[in-house]
Amino acid sequence: MRSAKGVTSVDDVHGQDMQTSGVSRRDVIKGAGATALGLGIAGGLGAGTAGAAAPSAPKKGGSLRIGITGSAADIMDPQYIVAKADQARTLSTWETLLTFDENFATTSDYGLATEVSNKGASQYTVRLRKGVEFHNGKEMTADDVVYSYRRLLNPSIVSVGKPLRTFVDPSGVTKVDKYTVRFDLKAPNVEFRSALAVYTHGIVPDGFVLRTDADRIGTGAYKLVSFTPGRESVHKRYANHWEADKAYLDEVRIITFSDKTALVNALLAKQIDAAVDIPLAQFATLKKNKNLSVIESSAGAWDAMCMRLDIPPMNDPNVRAAMRLLVNRKQMIQQVLSGRGQVANDLYGRIDEFYNANNFPQREQDIPAALKLLAKSGYSKAKPLVVDLWAPNDTGGLPEMVNAMAAMADKTGGVVKINAKVVDGTYWDTNGQYMNTAFFTTYWSPRAYLAQAIASMDTYPETKWPPSNSTFRADHKTASGTVNPAKRKAIVARMQKEEWEKGTYIIPYFKVFADAFTKKLNGVEQRPSQLNLDYYGHGFKNFWLA
Amino acid sequence: MSAAATPAVTTAAMDEHRPSIWRAALRMGRTRVGIVLTLLLAGVALVGPYVAPFGPTDFVDMPSTRDVPGTLLGTDYFGQDVWSRFLHGGRQILLLALVATALGLVLGASLGMYAAYRRGRADEAIMRSLDVILSFPQVLLSLVVIAMFGPSSWLIVLTVALSTTPRAARIIRGAAISVVERDFVLAADALGESRPRIVVAEILPNVTAALLVEANLRLTYAIGLIASLAFLGFTPNPNAANWGLMVQENRLSLAEQPWGTLLPTLAIALLTIGTGLIGDGLSRAAAGIDRGRAQD
Amino acid sequence: MPIVKFVARRSLYGLVSLVVVSLLIFLVTQAFPSDPAERILGREATPESLEALREQFGLNDPLHEQYLGWLGGILTGDFGTSYATQVRVSEYIGPRVGNSLFLLLLGAVASIPVSIAIGAYAALRRDRAFDTGSSLVSLVLAAMPEFVVGTLLVVLLATNVAQWLPAVTYLEVGSPPWSDWPGLVLPVATLVISVAPYVARVMRASMIEVLESDYVEMARLKGMPERVVLWRHGFPNAVGPIFQVVALNLAYLAGGVVVVERLFNFPGIGSAIADSVVARDLPVIQFLALIIAAVYVLTNLLADLGTVLVTPRLRTRLR
Asked: Are A335 and B150 an interchain contact pair (Cβ–Cβ within 8 Å)?
C-alpha cells in the first residue's frame, strides 16, 4: 500500500521573513478531525537531527517548559482541539491505536494497537497491545476502545468525529475479545488505518465523561497534574507507562501565550525551553541565534480560496478558470509565508501516493489568458467583475491571502475587482460567510486524496462540488472500495483531472510550520510531521534535557 | 516664570475687545514651530499619495527586507514598499482621528462646562450618566462594539468619540469648577448675562489650557487606539495603508526591518509634538491675555 | 457630617450605575451576532451539539430570566460558569483580578509621584530647559502606543540588545504576582511610561494655571515667601484636577492593561477580556465589565473626595 517515492529535500526559499500570524486559534481545528493522513508519501521535508550537538546518552530528569499559543478557550480533550496548545496537551495524556511514521504511513510504533488486519476495504480487525495502563491504574482493553470510538461517533458529544461518521456507525464498532476490536464500515474505505492514527482519536477509559481535571485520564507517558485554560498545564511522568523507559523528563509544563511575539521573546529571554509554531517571519533570525535550534516541517497542510459552484459569479466555469490564472503562487508564498512553503497546483492531498497522478504542469499567473476567458463571459473594463473575497481574522494566513489576491486582481486593469473582506470568528458560524458566500477562504490539514475529497463533498460541503452531471462522486465511491493500487490510481487520476480543469478550489501553496528551542533540548528531529515539535515527541517521549 | 511675576492688580470686569488669542499665540516661537510641524505632517498625509513611488498594496520584494534595490527603506511585513506605505498612510488615520477627537471634545467640553456651571442636580445627572459610559472600560467597550457591528471606520470614530466625551467632560468640569467659583463669573451672573453666553464667553478662555492639553492627547490617543485594536486583532480594513496599523503590522519584524514600525511612530510623535506646541502656545497666549486684561 | 452624606450619596450613585452597567452589558451582549455555542464549536458544530450546548448554557431561556438569574446569582456570590473554560467564573477570573490589581497598583505607585513631581517642577521652571525637555519627551512618549513602548523595552532590555530582564511574566498557577518580581519590571515600566506623560502634562497645566491665579498673586503681594505660597496655595489647588486625572488613569489602567498584559503574557484580566469577547463568553464579559466598573466607581469616589478635601474653596462649600 505504501510506495515511498523518496524524500525530496527542503524547498528552501531563503530571505527575510514576514508574519503569517496574528490570532490563530483555529489554526488546526478542522484538520484535527481528519480521517487524516494516508498511505504513501510524496515529498516533504528532509529528515535529520536538528540539534547541532552529537547526541549522547539520554539523561533522565528535568522539567521542560513549552510555550505555545492559545487562549482562555484552551481545551484539554482527547477527541477535540481548537488551538495548537490543545494539540500538545492532547498528545501528552492520550494515545491512539496507530501513529504515522515520517513517510505518513501508519505504524504501530507509539500506538496502542499491535496489528490491524483487513478483509477487503470494509472490515478491519484491531489487536490491542497488552499491559497498557490508564493513569487510574486500570488496564486498557477492548471495552475502552469501543467506548472511545463510539464516543467519537456520537454527534451530540463535541468531538472531531464528523468525518468518521460518514463511513462508520456506532454499531459497527464491536468487541471481539478482551484485546480485539472489529470495525465494520458502512461505506468501504481503503484508507481506514489512517483514521486509527489521527491524534485526536485518543483512547479514553470506558465511561469517560469530561468534567474536571480528575477525568482527564489517558494512557500517555505523562499524567496531568493541573490544567488552567489560558495559562498552563503541568504533567508528571507516569511510572507505569508501557514504554516508561522512553520518557526521560520528570515534568512537562505547557504554557499558553496569547501573542506570538511574547512567545518568541520568552524563548530569547530563556524563560521557556521551546517555542511552538514561531512566526515564519522570524525563522531566519532565530536560526542565526547560537543558543537555539530551529526546525521546520510540512505534511502538506493547505489554504484555499473556495468558489461556490452555485452562486454567481462563481457558477460560471470561465470565471473560475480565470480566477485561478490571476494567482502568482510564488509571490503569495513570499507574502503569506515569508517564502517558506511549497507551490501548489490547485490539487490537494500532497502526501497521497497518487498526488498529481496526471503530472499536470504547474499553473502560473497568466493575466492575458484570464482576460480572454472573462471576455467570453462578457466581462470588460466597462462591465467589470466585482466580487467580495472573505477571510476570518482568527486564522493566520487567510487575511493575508485575500489581501494578496485583491492586489493581484488589480493587474487586470480594472476588469476584475476583488474586495478583500476580513471578519472575526463569526465567519465560521452556521450563517457566517464560510460556505455561504460565492468566494471565501478555508484551510485544511493534510489528508490523503480520497479522505479529503469526501470531507470537501460531505463533511464540509464548501463549494457544493461536484457538479450534478459529473462522475466524481461515483468515482470516489468506487476508488474507496478498490484495494488494488493500480486500479485505484486510474480512478483517482480521472477525479483529479476534473478538479484541475473545472474545480472550485484555488490552492496556491502548501504550508510549513516551524519551532524553535534551546540547544539543551535533545531528541527533537527535523522530519516530516503532521504536528509541531516533531509530533511533540509523541507525547514528550524521546525528549531529554542536557 | 517671568510672566507670572507680573502682578495682577485688580480683578477685572468683562472686557469686550480682547486681542485675538491666535494673534498673540502666533507671536511665540513655539507656536510657529508647532504649526510648521503640523503642516508638514498634514502635507505628507495630503500630498504623499501623489508622490509615492509605489501603490499602497503593490508587491515589491521579499517581505521585511531592508535593502531592496529601487526602494528607499525596504519592504514591510507584506513585501510592500515601506516608504510608499508611509506616504499613503497618513490621510485616512488623520481624518479619522481628527473627526473622532473633535466630536468627542465638543460634546464632552460642552457637557462638562454646563455641568460645572449649573452645579446641583443637572451636574449630578450629567456626570453620573457619563460615569456609566466611562465605567465601561475603554478597550472592552471598543471590543464589544466592534464584535457587534464588525470593524468599520465610522465605528472607530464613534467609539473614540464616545470614550473621549466623558473623559473630556470630567477634566473640563474639574477645571471649570474653579473658574465658576471666581468672582468675575459670579459678577457676570449678577449682571444678568444669559447663562450659555457666560459659559462660552467666560469659562471657555479660562479652560483653554486644559482643553488643549486634552485635545492634543486625545488626538494621539485616537491614533493609538486604532493601532492597539489592531494589536488585539481587530482591524477595520486589513492592509489599508494607515500609520496606526503600520505600527502594529510591522512590530513582529522590528529587529529585521525597524522602519516599518519606527517611521509611522515617528510621524505620529512629530504630529503630537506639533499639535502640542500649538496648544501650548495658545494656552500661554490665553493666559497672557488674561493678565493683559487684568491690567486694563 | 456633610462628608459622610457626600460619601453615602455617591456610594448610592455608584451602586445604581453598576446595575445600569450590568443591564447595559447584558443587553449589548444579546445583540452580538453569533452565539456562544456557535463560537465554541466553530466548524465542528453539529445541530445536536449546538442544541446541547445552548441547553447547558441556558441560552434558550427567556431573556429576562437569564438576566435575573445572573443578577440573583451575583447577590449570592455566584457569578456563573464561563462558557469557554467550563470553569466557575470566580475561579477563572478571581486570581486574574488579583494579579491585575497588583500590576495596576505597582503602576500607579510608580507613576503618580514621579509624574506629579515632573509636572509640578516643569511648571515652576516654565520655559527653561527642564520644562521644554520634559514636555518634548512626554509628547513623544504619549504618541507611542503601549505595545510599541513595551516592544522597544523588551528588544532593548530582554532579548535583542541586552538580556538583563525577563521578557514575559511567568506566574505559576496559584502563586502570588510578586513571586516573579523581575518579570514585573518591564510591564510596570511600560505602564508608567504610557501613563506618566499624561499625568505630568495635566499637572503642569494645572499648576501653571494656579500659579497665575489671583489668589496666588494675592499671596505673593502680601509678601509671603515663595515656598509658603507654593505649598500652601499653589500645590493644593493644582493637585485637585490631578485627582481626577489619576482616577481616570487608574480606570484606564484597570481596563486598558489589556495590551500590556498581552505583550508580557501577564495572567491578568487583560487577556481574559479579549478572549471572552472573541469566544462570546458572556458570563466572563459581564463579570469583567462589572469588576472594572466597580474599580472605576470606587476610584472616582475617592478622587472626588480627594478633590473636595484638598481644594480649599470646595472644602469650605461643603461645610
From this structure: no
